[in-house]
């Protein structure tokens, strides 16, 4: 069952309901996190090793019967334009948080799990670095990769575009719901 929400207002490029059984959890994705290409490994409550292990994520994900995937596209100057990429991630996370707030307001009885893109950027400096608890655990969104989900594979399986043209990046989010 989908959401009766005007999803266009969030600026998504694509949105689609899909069978959450299509989601596969791959230990290799978490292994890639450990290589720390993004520089966030061990620095954020929503990234490994702080997040749950992939078996626990699989149990959580398997408990949902419905899933909505959303994508948003951002312009960058080049594939090294990290500033624009991080700005895009921050905007995408804000969009997902707004979406979740609207879903909860309209469907207060629904069980929801929101998965997004990149390390949580709500706070200027994540408290994980200081050994402190997360400031906003009900707002913070773990990334699909942190759960061991191969985002490119998921986009192919679900039928949404991961590449949307030269000098763009596409971020994907998933709302699991019952
Ligand atoms: S809300 Fe703040 S403390 Fe919590 S994961 Fe995000 S950045 Fe870290």
Could you please describe the fold and organization of this structure?
It is a single chain. This protein has 178 residues and is α+β, with helices and mostly antiparallel strands. It has one domain (7-177). The protein is built from 4 helices and 4 strands; from the N terminus they run βααβαβαβ. It has a 4-stranded antiparallel beta sheet with strand order 1-2-4-3, sandwiched between helices. The longest helix is centred in the middle third of the chain and has 25 residues, at 82-106. It is globular and about 40 Å long. Iron/sulfur cluster binds next to loops.
List cofactors, ions and other ligands: iron/sulfur cluster
Per DSSP, the total helix count is 4
> Looking at the structure, what is the overall shape?
globular
Structural class by sheet pairing and helices: alpha+beta
Multimerization state? single chain
Q: How would a textbook summarize the main sheet?
A: 4 strands, antiparallel
Give the SSE order as H and E letters.
EHHEHEHE
Arithmetic mean pLDDT: 94
Q: How is the largest sheet built, in terms of strand order?
A: 1-2-4-3
Note poorly predicted spans.
Answer: none
How many distinct folded domains?
Answer: 1
Distance between the termini: 8 Å
The number of strands is: 4
Residue fraction in strands: 15-25%
Specify the helix fraction band: 25-40%
Radius of gyration over C-alpha positions, nearest whole angstrom? 15 Å
Concise structural overview:
Helix content is 28%, strand content 16%. The protein contains 4 helices and 4 strands, in the order E-H-H-E-H-E-H-E. The mean pLDDT is 94.
């Amino acid at each position: 069952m989908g959401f009766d929400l005007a999803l266009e207002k969030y600026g998504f490029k694509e949105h689609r309901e899909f069978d959450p059984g299509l989601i596969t959890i791959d230990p290799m994705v978490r292994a890639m996190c450990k290589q720390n290409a993004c520089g966030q490994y061990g620095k954020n409550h929503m990234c490994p090793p702080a997040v749950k292990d992939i078996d626990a994520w699989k149990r959580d994900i398997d408990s949902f019967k419905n899933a909505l995937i959303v994508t948003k596209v951002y312009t960058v100057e080049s594939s090294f334009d990290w500033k624009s990429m991080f700005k895009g991630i921050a905007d995408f996370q804000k969009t997902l948080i707004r979406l979740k707030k609207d879903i909860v307001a309209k469907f207060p009885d629904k069980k929801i799990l929101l998965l997004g893109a990149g390390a949580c950027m709500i706070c200027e400096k994540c408290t994980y670095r200081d050994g402190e608890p997360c400031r906003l655990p009900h707002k913070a969104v773990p990334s699909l990769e942190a759960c061991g989900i191969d985002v490119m594979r998921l986009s192919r399986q679900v039928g949404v575009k991961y590449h949307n043209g030269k000098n763009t990046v596409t971020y994907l989010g998933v709302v699991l719901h019952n």
